[in-house]
Amino acid sequence: MRAEGIIFDVDGTLAETEEVHRQAFNDTFARFDLPWHWDRSLYRRLLDVTGGKERIRAYVASDDPPQGARALDLVLELHTAKTECYTELVVAGAAKLRPGVKRLIAEARRDSVRLAIATTTSLPNVEALLAAAFGSDAAKIFEFIGAGDVVPRKKPAPDIYRLVLDEMRMPTFACIAVEDSRNGLDSARAAGLPTLVTPSVYTSHQSFPGAMAVVPDLDTPPVSLATIAKWRAADSGW
Ligand SMILES: [Mg+2]
């Protein structure tokens, strides 16, 4: 069955952005004179918490780092500064699209398959990435971008996907989601969406029960609309 809409996650799915996020967090901590450094293994653990503000709070609660209380008082400023720093890095081209993303999106546009985004990252982050990756076409590609704090509960809750489906006025069965993480998969599945998973640097150790398909990336093997239709037909009777 043909998918009429594809809803993409951003971080780890459209691009391997988490390394850029990590760099932005660390640059921000230095700017605020916080003696913190998030290395890859620590960041991998912190990624279980979605949302930047929530991630800082969770780090203070679990690791009791120096100046934790001051950081909690500053969490909104920290998050704003981190978002600005991330945006600067992305505008400078630090986050590249993952293999096959541009090709599948081009095929979808040619075939009038509708495209949207469901992410817990902030809207400025998303817009910066799309502008750097797609240039002047960016605003035309995704008809709706569900981003950041627009819903009360972040992934793995289904709220962001439900919002996007409402905004597109699309029935669940007509769409699929593309995700890279267990949190994202659980969110999309809870909204009722068949979900294609392309695990990223920080999620390749996770398991993905209930995924429609799991492939290393959208070029391995090359994922087309026909591939997706075949997977949907095989996935619990779509
Ligand atoms: Mg993700």
UniProtKB/TrEMBL annotation:
Molecular function terms, GO-annotated: hydrolase activity
Superkingdom, taxonomy of origin: Bacteria
InterPro entries registered for this protein in UniProt: CbbY-like (IPR044999), HAD-like_sf (IPR036412), HAD-SF_hydro_IA (IPR006439), HAD_sf (IPR023214), PGP-like_dom2 (IPR023198)
Keywords: Hydrolase
Protein's UniProt keywords contain Hydrolase: yes
Classification via Pfam families: Hydrolase
Entry annotated with the keyword Cell inner membrane: no
Protein name: HAD family hydrolase
